[in-house]
Write a structure and sequence with these properties.
The chain is α/β, with parallel strands linked by helices. The protein has 24 helices and 19 strands. It is globular, with a radius of gyration of 26 Å. It binds adenosine-5'-diphosphate, ligand TPW and magnesium ion. This is Oxalyl-CoA decarboxylase.
Length: 579
């Protein structure tokens, strides 16, 4: 056959075959890998993508700002161990989503940020395209992996790589760059279907070395005053039963980092939460389980801890580079927490020696003292409320509704709620995490409601809420069972600052007597203003019984908080004062 005849045959074949395009290949690749929900904001070039995904049965949750969509995807990843998907437009939308991607990576939450991007040829020659930006280059240092797809035939492989990168090893954020042209590329539908990859065993178990296990057991066995610290990695791992069995069999007291609270009930007999400073100072062996020795644990040294050389650290983590990051780890155990804790549990065997009664006795005494000291503060019914009075009411709410998801951000509102509100079930407390970032509130609330179907209680500082507050419309639009309580103290930390230099307000204060509840009413949700703990409790109960979107403006004494909550010592000024 002549070349011309061959060409003609090919053309006939082409017109007869079924075609697919970039849009559908991305949707099919996500569906094939179990993606049920996409969080995003529409616009060029992904508006049709959202519509088509919706038509293909994926739930597409549209937000008012990409950062909130990104935070929603990130926490969906944390809750489900599947990468949460965030979808944005190019340049500015991408950048809005990037903060959430970086935050997800920092917190070890698996997520994939998918952004449309402009014409490569124009972007690379910097000729001024619509929303021009070299997004791939910008995303790279802020996530675990970043990929760009130029050919429709590569979409299947790209999505597979993105999923593996997000969930395997230490989980984190992945960026997937999809140029506008890709969506419109067509190819043979059969070949397209064959190009898709269903990822097998995306996060393979990582079994610890037997020698590492016996080394750790030796150290634990010889401890007089052992302590376990669980971090959010342990909660993420979903090895709840194994973890509980290990704690109860070993009898070792434990602390739970903020988002690990509830992995075991905070009221568990071995919880040393109410004796935190005592156990950190006095333990002779500390086993970290999915918790980094970062600033949240004073880097494992200094006055929070015992004298240098008096404490040994065992660490369980999936990331080998985490070992010795701040202090020497005498028994590193690298592997996934489920596998490591099972191996440790098995190795305990009969040769285990329960911590001395002096150690557990001393902890219990301290716990009782601290709990007794706190009790009257939590029962005060002052109006305007102080933090403790209001939190006393919310503490009871969670006790009565342990399966509700609690979201928490702010300064005083965060630090005090973390201490006061006991958690009873794993992965029920979601908060500002490793960076202490404000703005996670409404994104987390939306995803928590959607991914779990459980009622959500978001306890928000008035400043913290402002970072994502517009999403109350999203909560109303999707009619989600979210109850937001704003701790309204007229500002950041306190509402009492005065600017002595001009007529401008002080930098930390807001409009006095604001009524955030009216924001909710504007979108058809329920708004309530409360001034006493009793009113607060009643309003929250009603909201959670009804499942209706509700915002409660809880009036807090503007003078009740302290600067930076519990971390005022990190202010540069406080170092100057000390000198
Ligand atoms: P926290 O802030 O609660 O102290 P961090 O975020 O500092 O917790 O630490 C979480 C740690 O858990 C990270 O070092 C991460 O590598 C680790 N991690 C996450 N998932 C797993 C897992 N499945 N198995 C083992 N380690 C994990
Ligand atoms: C993205 C700095 C830490 S806490 C906080 C800010 C602005 C708000 C505290 O006020 P709030 O709480 O929420 O009213 P309360 O109860 O003490 O009055 N920008 C980002 N992240 C952080 N952490 C900040 C700024 C900050
Ligand atoms: Mg405030």
């Amino acid at each position: 056959m002549s070349a011309a005849a061959q060409g003609a045959t090919a053309m006939v074949a082409e017109t007869e075959q079924e075609l697919t395009d970039g849009f559908h290949l991305v949707i099919d690749a996500l569906k094939l890998n179990g993606v049920k929900t996409i969080y995003g904001v529409p616009g060029i070039p992904i508006t049709d993508f959202g519509r088509m995904a919706q038509a293909e049965g994926i739930r597409v949750i549209s937000f008012r700002h990409e950062q909130n969509a990104g935070n929603a995807a990130a926490i969906a990843g944390y809750l489900t161990k599947q990468p949460g998907i965030c979808l944005t437009v190019s340049a500015p939308g991408f950048l809005n989503g990037l903060t959430a991607l970086a935050n997800a990576t920092t917190n070890c939450f698996p997520m994939i940020l998918i952004s449309g991007s402009s014409e490569r040829e124009i972007v690379d020659l910097q000729q001024g395209d619509y929303e021009e930006m070299d997004q791939l280059a910008i995303a790279k240092p802020l996530c675990k992996a970043a990929f760009r797809v130029l050919h429709a035939a590569d979409i299947g492989i790209a999505v597979a790589r993105a999923i593996r990168a997000a969930v395997s090893g230490r989980p984190g954020g992945v960026y997937l760059d999809l140029p506008a042209k890709l969506f419109g590329q067509v190819m043979n539908a059969d070949a397209g279907a064959k190009s898709l990859v269903k990822v097998i065993d995306a996060a393979p178990a990582q079994i610890p070395a037997p020698s590492a296990i016996s080394r750790a057991v030796d150290v634990l066995k010889n401890a007089k005053r052992p302590l376990i610290i669980f971090g959010k990695g342990a909660a993420y791992a979903q090895a709840d039963d194994t973890i509980r069995a290990f704690v109860e069999k070993s009898g070792i007291p434990f602390l739970q980092m903020s988002m690990a609270k509830g992995l075991l009930p905070d009221t568990h007999a071995l919880s040393a939460g109410a004796a935190r400073s005592t156990v950190l100072k006095e333990a002779d062996v500390v086993m970290l389980v999915g918790a980094r020795l970062n600033w949240l644990l004073s880097h494992g040294k200094g006055k929070t801890w015992g004298a240098p050389g008096t404490q040994k650290f065992v660490q369980i983590d999936i990331e080998p580079k985490e070992m010795d990051s701040n202090v020497e780890i005498v028994a590193p155990v690298v592997g996934d927490i489920g596998s490591c804790m099972s191996a440790l549990l098995e190795a305990l065997g009969g040769k285990w020696q329960v911590p001395s009664p002096e150690w557990t006795g001393a902890i219990n005494k301290k716990k009782e003292e601290n709990i007794a000291k706190m009790a009257p503060r939590l029962m005060n019914n002052k109006s305007p409320m102080d933090f403790h009075g209001a939190l006393g009411a919310l503490r009871t709410v969670i006790k009565e509704r342990p399966d509700a998801i609690l979201i928490n951000e702010g300064a005083n509102t965060l630090d005090l709620a973390r201490g006061v509100i006991d958690m009873y079930q794993p992965r029920k407390r979601l908060d500002v995490g490793t960076w202490g970032v404000m703005g996670i509130g409404m994104g987390f609330a939306v995803a928590a409601a959607i991914e779990t179907g459980k009622p959500v209680l978001a306890i928000e500082g008035d400043s913290a809420f402002g970072f994502s507050g517009m999403e109350v419309e999203t909560i109303c639009r999707y009619d989600l069972p979210v109850c937001i309580v704003i701790f309204n103290n007229d500002g950041i930390y306190r509402g009492t600052d005065v600017n002595g230099a001009s007529n401008d307000p002080a930098t930390t204060v807001f409009v006095k007597g604001s009524r955030y509840d009216k924001m909710m009413e504007a979108f058809g949700g329920i708004g309530v203003n409360v001034t006493t703990p009793d009113e607060l409790k009643r309003a929250v109960d009603k909201a959670m019984d009804s499942g209706k979107p509700t915002l409660i403006n809880a009036v807090i004494d503007p003078a009740a908080g302290s600067e930076s909550g519990r971390i005022g010592n990190l202010n540069p000024q406080s170092a100057l004062k000390k000198k």
